[in-house]
């Protein structure tokens, strides 16, 4: 039952992204060229919605509607955040898709998006292997959640 609900909401969210032209290559390229500011507005609304949602969660005592606890805390700075952000942005600009919109593009039947999804899966796998092998000790140590200050 839960899988069906998640699938329904994911499909609806993908439909909204598609209708909002968020998965359109020209819209994404226009954002990076600063010629189409539509996507900046969509991102701004998403940030505002998330901020309001987190504020409501904190105001509600960090509990979900069903009463389960929600652990919301600041994340510490990690050494790879800046370079990882640059790599994500470069991949986004080159492929015309971020991880979420690449799945929307696949749903729209854009076959080239399969290469983007394959790159995302491969990159995630390689990151996990490097992190778990200890080849990047500074990333491994800083990737652990910080102890709660409460």
Describe the model.
With 150 residues, the chain is mainly alpha-helical. The protein has one domain. Helices cover 67% and strands 0% of the residues. It has seven helices and no strands. Helix 1 crosses helix 5. It is globular, with a radius of gyration of 18 Å. It starts with a helix and ends in a 7-residue tail after the last helix. About 4% of the residues have low confidence.
C-alpha termini separation: 36 Å
Mean pLDDT: 81
Structural class based on helices, strands and sheet pairing: mainly alpha
Enumerate the spans where pLDDT stays under 50 for 5 or more consecutive residues.
Answer: 139-144
> Number of helix segments?
7
Count of DSSP strands: 0
What letter string, H or E per element, gives the SSE order?
HHHHHHH
Rg, please?
18 Å
Short description:
It is built from 7 helices and no strands. The chain is mainly α.
What descriptors fit this protein?
single chain, 150 residues, mainly alpha, 67% helix
